Amino acid sequence: MEQKNIYKTVFKINHAGGSGSCFYLKKQDIFITNYHVVEGFKTVAIKDNEQNSFLARVILVNPVRDIALLKVDEYDFSNLPEIALSDVESVSIGQKLNVAGYPFGMPFAVTEGTVSSPKQLMNNSYYIQTDAAVNPGNSGGPMFNDKNELVAITVSKFNNADNTGFGIPVSVLKTFLETIENEDIDKSVFNVQCPSCDILITDEEEYCPSCGEKLDENIFRERGLTELAAFCEEAIKDMGINPVLARVGYESWRFHKGSSEIRMFVFDRSYLFCTSPLNILPKKDLEPVLTYLVGTSVKPFQFGLEGNQIYLSYRIHISDIFSDHQDEVKKNITQLAFTADDQDNFLADKFGCEFSEYAKKDAI
Questions:
Q1: Per-residue pLDDT for 270 more than 90?
Q2: In this structure, is residue 270 part of a structural domain?
Q3: Predicted local confidence at residue 157, as pLDDT
Q4: Which of 286, 315, 310, 287 is nearest to 299 (CA)?
Q5: Parallel, antiparallel or unpaired: strands 30-33 and 67-72
Q6: Is residue 30 part of a domain?
Q7: Separation between Cα atoms, residue 39 and residue 37, nearest integer Å
Q8: How is residue 336 annotated by DSSP?
Q9: In sequence order, what are the residues at sequence separation of 6 or more whose Cβ sits closer than 8 angstroms to the Cβ of residue 235?
């Protein structure tokens, strides 16, 4: 697999609790990630490097192995390359490897390092230890060797420790895949694999019905939304956007309505901000566009500038959301997306303002 194709097999995971990484296995038509990345969620969004989002169902979790499987129902990924699974014997001290993923929720990145220990024992399990840069957001992504074969699933790093990252060896993933193939997993439902006897459990149970192992009491539960988040997601739904695909963290959303990117987030625990980076100021003949931005009323929204970036924004005190103005606020939030999608085109056509680098290019 060529280096450039790594970008095509590694995806970002977004949900109301944060973000992580995952990768696609073509043979099984599933995505692999860590359990702790999707813990508390049965439906998440995954996003490719071209900013295309897909709804993914969590179909199997194993908390002890820290592995989870995801399935996307309404898209064909057969055009993606096959990831080759390496033999565990090929991993040795000093061997080069690459960690691929979305650190800190930022765009895709690959960091290079070496194997510090091929068999590091922690918490009764063995991990591959590396000095490659591993950060929050990398969890669930792949570690590749210099042949671009999968050697591990990135799992964690020590807090406040530099150059110390860990991965679940590919041998564990192979055993996991063999087990579920033998069990003939039902991909239409949420499955929990018993950490003791490996059977798949689909009904909510306190104990494994086969071996009696006590199960994590929260493993079948989905994390609920705050009242504010539920309100915001109703407004997003009114825009014609699936709110699950818009989640990028706790009470935070980012998505595209047409070409314009819309960002919604809570600031200082007091305000809900809705903003869209529209266009870039032209390098010359600024007076007409500045006159338009200053003199044009887009209430209840406002134009703003940061450097040469033009923004359209709406700020609401959270107390106003839970007041008699609730319906009006929701309508305004929804309308901001439509106004932004109109304004970025107008600014481009009228004043020659280039679209923001955050604009969705195939929707311009």
A1: yes
A2: yes
A3: 64
A4: 315
A5: antiparallel
A6: no
A7: 6
A8: H
A9: 330, 333, 334
CA angle 64, 82, 150 (to 5 degrees): 45
The size of the chain, in residues, is 364
β-pair type (191-193, 53-62): parallel
The residue from 137, 172, 207 where one domain ends is 172
Q: Within 13 A of 140's CA, how many CA atoms are on the CB side? A: 34
| Residues 296-307 pLDDT 10s | 999 999 999 999
- The verdict on residue 69 lying in a domain is no
pTM recorded for the entire structure: 0.89
pLDDT in tens, 185-202: 888 999 999 989 999 999
Q: What residues does 143 pair with on adjacent strands?
A: 99, 152
Domain co-membership, 249 together with 358: yes
pLDDT greater than 70 at residue 225: yes
Strands 309-317 and 302-306 come out as antiparallel
Q: Domain count of the chain?
A: 2
What are the φ/ψ torsions at residue 228 (nearest 5 degrees)?
-65, -45
Q: Cβ distance 34 to 164 under 8 Å?
A: no
Instruction: Specify the DSSP element, H or E, that contains 127.
Output: strand 125-130
Give the pair of three-digit tokens for residue 203.
């009904």
Residue type, 92: S
Element at 261 (helix H, strand E): strand 260-267
Distance CA 90, CA 87 (A): 6
Amino acid letter, residue 300: P
In a domain, 65, yes or no: no
Cβ–Cβ < 8 Å for 22, 68: no
Q: What local confidence, expressed as pLDDT, does residue 179 receive? A: 82
**Could you tell me which of 161, 162, 169, 67 has the C-alpha nearest to residue 118?**
169
Residue 100, domain CATH: 2.40.10.10
Contact 303, 311 (CB under 8 A): yes
280 and 158 belong to one structural domain: no
Burial of 202 (0-12, 13-18, 19+ CB in 10 A): middle
Whole domain around residue 131: which residue ranges? 88-172
Which tokens in the block code for residue 78? Answer: 């057969």
Q: How far apart are CA 89 and CA 58, in angstroms?
A: 31
Burial label, 277 (beta-carbon count in 10 A; 0-12, 13-18, 19+): buried
* Same domain, yes or no: 129 and 257: no
